[in-house]
Structure formats: structure tokens, C-alpha cells
Specification:
The structure is a single chain. By secondary structure, this protein is an alpha+beta fold. The chain has two domains: 133 residues, Beta-Lactamase (2-Layer Sandwich); 81 residues, no CATH class. It is 35% helix and 20% strand. The protein contains seven helices and eight strands. The strands form two sheets. It has a five-stranded antiparallel sheet. Strand 7 and strand 8 form a beta hairpin. Helix 4 packs antiparallel against helix 5.
Amino acid sequence: MARLRAVGALSHEQSEVLAEGGGVQDVLDTLVRHTSTPAAVFDTADRLIAASRPEDGPGGGLAEGSGGGPGEGPGGGSRPQAPTPFNGMGTRLTIRGAHAATFVLYPDAEADVEMLELAQDRTVEALKLALLRSRPPGPRELAASELVRLAAADGAHPQRIRRLGVSVGFSADAPVIGVAAGATGPSDELRRLDDLLSRYGRTAVDMPSPLAVHVLLAPRTSAPGSSPTSPSGTRPTAPRSRSVR
């Protein structure tokens, strides 16, 4: 009961923060005041949007590029390291079905994990509302996410799939390759799969979970007698579908 009361108080304060026009940083600061646990939010490219530590206090979170974050420096010193989305308690934030951000808590060994899970669940909704105001997914991101979900399902909506494909830049009659990758734990490579595949053509991406990514690739066509090149000028090897384990 004590946990539920504490989480209820957190949810009430976050609602007030949003009602007063607060954003992602304000929501995080409220969470950290109630849990004494560092937290951060990253965009879909793993860039830091906002972060907060217990010692920061209201409005003291770390903005992108500030160079600080949860954790300690090498050797256990007090110099903070920049937070990353690859450790801690992470959860994916979606807005209208599209991946919008990643929210991570960084508990220490003595943390009440059950309490933090409840607080994280409540904070997810507040962060979604704050992100919807300040960093809503664009029309292409929303269409691409829906396209991949429909293609990965039973394929019962071919006309809808065709329209979405055209809207994200796929040619109506061009071949499309589907790639599904999964990981058993946080994976830097998994998150960069879209960057890799986009060298070979136009992509549409959906992340059904923090440990899985689905990509549709419409391969780039080359003029007769020519060969596609990577951004570095070398000729890339054709991508192969595989799981990241």
C-alpha cells in the first residue's frame, strides 16, 4: 500500500506539471525527486533529450550535449558519465504506434525495484504527453511504423499497405525486403540496423520492443552497368537478414 500511495502522489504531481505547461525535463525532475533515482530520455537515434539526477534538483537535469549524466566516472570517482540507453531499466515510448523515445531509469544496488517499476509505468504516460507537445513523430515516421506492422502481420490489408508504401517513398511495383532482428539484451548494433540498411535503399522501421526491430528495405536501383556505392565510396556487400544475438 505504501508503494501505491507514493506512486499515486507522483502521478498527481506529474499531472500538475503537465497542466502548467511542463515538458520532458520537468516530468523527469518530478520522478527523480520522488524516487531518488537518476533517469534519462533519448530520441530514436539514441541522442539525449533530457536527464536528471537526485542532486540536480528542480530544473537541474542535463540537456543534450552537456556532457554529464547518471553514474560515476572511471574507477568509482565522482565525475559523472554521460547517460546511455544501453543500461538501466529502459522502456520504449510510442506515440500513435511510432517509436518516439526511450526512457531509462538507473537504479543502484539498494533501490526498491518494484517501486521503480510502478513509478516508471506512471511516468511513461506523462512523458508521452510531454513528447507529443514538443517532439511529435512526423507523418512519415507514423506511416512507416504502421506499414511495417501491417506487413509483419497477416497481410490482410494489401491496399492499405500499398498506399502506406507509396507515402513513405516506396515504388508501388518495386521489390521490398523484410528484415527482423532481435537481441537478448541491450544492443547498440540493433539500434543502428536502420542506418546500415539505409545505405542500400529507402527503409521503413518499427520497433515492436526494445529488443527487436523490423525493417522494410526497398533496394536502390542503379543505372545499367553501374554499381551502388556506400557513403565512403566503396562498393558495399548486399545486406543479409540475420538475428542479432
